[in-house]
Predict the structure.
Amino acid sequence: MLNWMKWFPENVSTYGGEIDSMISLIYYVTLAWFFLTMGALLLFLFLYRRREGRRASYIRGERWGEVGWVFALVLIVLVLDFWIDFRGASVWAKVKSHMPPTELTIQVTAKQFNWEVLYPGPDGKFGTEDDRPFENELHVPVGKPVRVVLKSKDVIHSFFSPNLRLKQDMVPGRAIPAWFEATKPGKYELACAELCGFGHSGMKGWLYVHTAGEYEQWVKEQWPAS
């Protein structure tokens, strides 16, 4: 783990490490480019400072040698950008496209300003009598892939779990699938990462990751008849 990443919330997701690696790549590319840019600026300030007996020259940028500097820098930026895109393609596909098989699907609906969480019950189907709603709390077992169906009742919200490295916008009129697999039991914050109104900052819920035994006990408490 890179030293600067100790500032991040603890990663408890199976794909969190790959996302952190991409953030690190972008961070160091940007940092290197920043120092090169500032270094060049300071160098030019020194080399071309005002001096006695030296007249300023006006560069029109019409000669190929002058234009070449612009194209060279543009090419470097494009190469770096495509390199980041290439490295991130597999991570994007893993998080967004290749959803693993799962036994648990949960529906999360955002509204101003809370999270409505719906479990399908023992029959595994939404819209039946054994559905169980919760508010601002999501319970999952550790080490098991979980599918969440994200919806919004009013405006655009964003489902954000810093510890899972998961953030997905929720758009009214759409059901957007996402998934995660938590690797460590605990209680983790769920926040809205899209400005959604005056109560946005207080729109907070909690993700409870249970051990297998604890989750089984929680399920029995919610659906005792089953």
